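Q: What residues go here?
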């Protein structure tokens, strides 16, 4: 949700800021803007549209400045237009700000400032914040750092901000609460960004501000303080664990396609050093170190949003089947607001690719306050959820840039499968022999995923037949019901074809009314509940629905009646969600491309949902 970038140092700031914004565009892309700071003047450009539009209108800009801040927006307050785009100036024109987040009490502050004679040109909460900073500064004669600190102590909501004052044009003041902010540490130069991708090519050292921290950044250094009491904080410098090539398209048309094709590697990376079949072991320190607490708990609650929630549902099936521990799966946004019963003995598994999703974060905080043990499964190293968790396992999927989650999902399911197997061993539900057999089967996943990816062309052709569809139904049973949900979500978010995922058996309780010759039904008909799914396929065909079935080699019954079959390797049922998800990702991808949709930046979506 909005990306912010800043630079202070010896390079031309324009290039760092504009290229950084391009990398952060996955966070929001309805408008973009930047300001260069030189000789106590602001050179500002902003526009509705993409970073490429900003680049275009910046052609005439004097680009010699060595300091600048920029923003790519996902609108919350005010429609996307030039005026609402960031940066925003204060009334005097002396302060400038970029902001990611929401100031919840902006309306009361705006009223107060209006009474003091302030006026506003945009509809944004951000313009209110920059004027609050100015008001504080002018009324108490404060430095920009103190004024930002005083103002941030007045606001309620979430923010990551960069502020510059013309009168102190040798510094950028930043602050964070609820929205991520990283500082790239160079030599006599510093980078600021919502994540490290804009500066990973320049430095491998980063400081991630914690919630409630701010920093004053000059060419000489970074001074980090607590916003509440101005206490100085020793910044923790972390080493970045990814390279530039991991966040570039590498010859693929879209990040999404690249990330789909990366799955053999991302699954392998997620299992590496953990799934040790030759030793008959799963080595996950987070689980092993806390096994007593986990095994003593009466239940596990899985909290997540969107695609990560689908991974959570698969986690429920896995843990209940393999370890016989009861699991509940909750949408974070519902859980946090419905006054749930949480016991101090509960284990909460929080799943999040970004590790920054506002609802997931809030739900975790609530569970933590109630005494539950939090186990985080995140992809982004050092993210808020990873840091707030008591223990956890990273999915080593690497940076995921495409807004539609693909490799992070299969990595999440990979982690959950290993957890379920390990817990199954610990609870004694899995004999040594069975456990070992499952490890060997699981180890084969990356190769099997490679086989599925070879179906790329075939799936592209199937997509051609359905590119004008307006609705689509996805059905699956057991482990593959969440896969159906995920397939439907992928399709709707990138192709804008309306799609629903259903448990196959539920079809009779409603969705069957939709079936006619215009409704494509994607059905997962691999082994496990096979006979029952065959009946569902017959029911669809007898109502003239079009069937695209995911099947295993040797299938004859579904093949005889389905319109299209996509044949994937046969695996044990508990491993099938990973295999069966891949063709659905490809199908969505090709349908979206054929419809001319912007696959990597679907309308209205943002990768990291840091507002509730
Ligand atoms: C869908 C998608 C979203 C995210 C959701 C949670 O493709 O990406 O549904 O899964 O916004 O995000 P994380 O996993 O970052 O908490």
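A:
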């Amino acid at each position: 949700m909005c990306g912010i970038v800043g630079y202070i140092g010896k390079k031309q700031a324009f290039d760092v800021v504009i290229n950084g914004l391009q990398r952060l565009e996955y966070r929001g892309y309805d408008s973009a803007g930047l300001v260069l700071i030189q000789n106590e003047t602001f050179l500002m450009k902003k526009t509705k549209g993409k970073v490429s539009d900003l680049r275009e209108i910046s052609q005439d800009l004097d680009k010699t400045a060595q300091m600048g801040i920029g923003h790519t927006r996902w609108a919350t307050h005010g429609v996307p237009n030039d005026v609402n785009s960031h940066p925003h100036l204060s009334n005097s024109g002396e302060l400038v700000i970029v902001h990611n987040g929401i100031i919840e009490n902006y309306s009361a502050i705006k009223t107060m400032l209006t009474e003091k004679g302030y006026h506003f040109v945009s509809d944004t909460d951000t313009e209110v914040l920059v004027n609050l900073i100015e008001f504080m500064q002018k009324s108490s004669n404060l430095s920009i750092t103190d004024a930002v600190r005083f103002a941030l102590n007045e606001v309620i909501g979430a923010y990551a901000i960069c502020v510059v004052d013309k009168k102190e044009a040798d510094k950028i003041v930043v602050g964070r609460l609820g929205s991520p902010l990283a500082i790239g540490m160079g030599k006599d130069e510093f980078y600021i960004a919502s994540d490290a991708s804009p500066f990973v090519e320049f430095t491998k050292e980063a400081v991630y501000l914690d919630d409630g921290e701010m920093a004053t950044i000059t060419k000489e250094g970074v001074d980090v303080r607590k916003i509440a009491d101005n206490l100085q904080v020793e910044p923790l410098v972390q080493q970045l664990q990814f390279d530039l090539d991991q966040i570039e398209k590498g010859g693929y048309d879209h990040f999404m396609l690249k990330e789909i094709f990366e799955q053999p590697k991302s699954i392998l990376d997620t299992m590496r050093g953990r799934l040790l079949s030759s030793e008959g072991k799963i080595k996950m320190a987070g689980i092993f170190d806390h096994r007593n607490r986990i095994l003593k708990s009466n239940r596990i609650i899985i909290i997540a949003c969107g695609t990560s929630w689908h991974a959570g549902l698969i986690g429920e099936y896995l843990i209940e089947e393999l370890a016989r521990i009861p699991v509940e799966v909750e949408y974070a946004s519902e859980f946090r607001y419905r006054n749930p019963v949480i016991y101090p003995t509960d284990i909460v598994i929080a799943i999040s690719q970004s590790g920054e999703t506002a609802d997931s974060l809030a739900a975790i905080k609530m569970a933590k306050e109630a005494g539950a043990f939090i186990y985080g499964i995140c992809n982004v190293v050092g993210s808020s959820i990873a840091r707030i968790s008591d223990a956890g396992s990273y999915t080593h999927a690497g940076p995921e840039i495409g807004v539609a989650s693909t490799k992070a999902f299969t990595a999440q399911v990979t982690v959950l499968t290993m957890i379920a197997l390990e817990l199954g061993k610990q609870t004694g539900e899995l004999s040594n022999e069975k456990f070992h057999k499952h490890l060997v089967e699981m180890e084969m996943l990356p190769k099997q995923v490679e086989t599925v990816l070879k179906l790329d062309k075939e799936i592209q052709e199937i997509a051609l037949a359905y590119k004008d569809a307006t609705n689509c139904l996805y059905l699956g049973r057991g482990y593959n019901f969440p896969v159906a949900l995920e397939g439907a979500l992928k399709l709707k978010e990138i192709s804008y074809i309306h799609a629903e995922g259903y448990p196959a058996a539920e079809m009779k309780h409603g969705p069957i009314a939709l079936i006619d010759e215009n409704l494509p039904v994607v059905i997962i008909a691999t082994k496990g509940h096979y006979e029952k799914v065959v009946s569902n396929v017959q029911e669809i065909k007898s109502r003239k629905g079009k069937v695209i079935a995911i099947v295993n080699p040797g299938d004859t019954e579904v093949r005889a009646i389905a319109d299209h079959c996509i044949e994937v390797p046969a695996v044990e049922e508990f491993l099938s969600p990973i295999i069966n998800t891949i063709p659905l990702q490809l199908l969505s991808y090709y349908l979206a491309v054929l419809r001319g949709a912007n696959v990597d930046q679907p309308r209205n979506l943002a990768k990291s949902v840091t507002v509730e």
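A: Context that may help when evaluating the design: The pocket of fructose -6-phosphate is lined by residues 305-308, 352-354, 357, 360, 404-405, 489, 493, 608-609 (CB under 6 Å). The radius of gyration is 25 Å.
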